[in-house]
Amino acid sequence: MARIILDTAMGTDRKPASWRAIRQEAAHSDDAGPAALPAAAEVSPLATAGLGSLKQFPVGTRNVPSPVLFADPYMPRVSVVIPALNEEKNLPAVLWAIPSWVHEVLLVDGRSIDRTVEVARRMRPDIRVIAQPGKGKGDALRAGFAAAKGDIIVMLDADGSTRPEEMPAFVGALLAGADYAKGSRFMQGGGTADMTLFRRVGHGMLVRLVKIAFGGNFSDLCYGYNAFWAHVLPRLGLDADGFEIETMMNVRALRARLKVVEVHSYEERRTFGEGRLRAIPDGLRVLRTIVKERLGLGSPVRVLGPVGPKSPGRARPRWLDDVGNLASRQASGE
Known about the structure:
Number of strands: 9
Number of helices: 11
CATH class: Alpha Beta
Oligomer: single chain
Strand content: 5-15%
Number of domains: 1
Helix content: 25-40%
CATH topology: Spore Coat Polysaccharide Biosynthesis Protein SpsA, Chain A
Radius of gyration: 20 Å
Shape: globular
């Protein structure tokens, strides 16, 4: 069912090169005006706002279609959490491509000294900016999770490495019955443009270690594109501050016996600036997290049996039945 949702809502033409070109053009087009926009685009006040990198991204226009499937009034609300630190050049393409059916976007700002917050608010006046209380990606994500109001929470990176147009696949996996949908760069259909051979080898060893220690069959461990039902968050007991938060989430999802589904995803290389991940120090933090979880030294998780989709006060989305009927007709050759 998740595949049907993906094909219907997202389409099948994945072009990493064009996505990267869009981000580069947006950040280099300081002199571009409304004439540079597609003919069908709605020209917004941003065209004369004085922020050149925003002129290619008009308000009211989205890079991702918003099909009827996601217009159902009983659709669970989706919150997108984006941790950011000095990402003014990369952020516009990310915000512009978020699907319009998303209920809310939360930017967790780690005390940026550039125009990250200004750019975010001009791009999306409805964005909720959360001041990060501490330091590190894990701390930022936990602050965003705590503030999110949606039934489903989706994690995105502000540097453009995670592609918002893939979001229907993650949400679709949850609506099809998963508790936790994790992105994978190493399954069929996925890929990465931002991993050295050294990191790839180390990552493979960590994935193997998790399989031995906790079971499961993950193909990716340290990727920041995940989505989950908000009501499963207390079962994970997250307390990591750094990049190891992604590994902690995946391992604790296994420990809590959540229904985890991997979704293929393509990781882009950041267009501007330097990444903050340090292969050896952060790799050691991930290793320590795995060892602590295996020895039972981490925070306890709650194992209460199957979770499944839950949206208090909301009925089953009508389009689920329509998709199921369509699949049945296709299978029978009608």
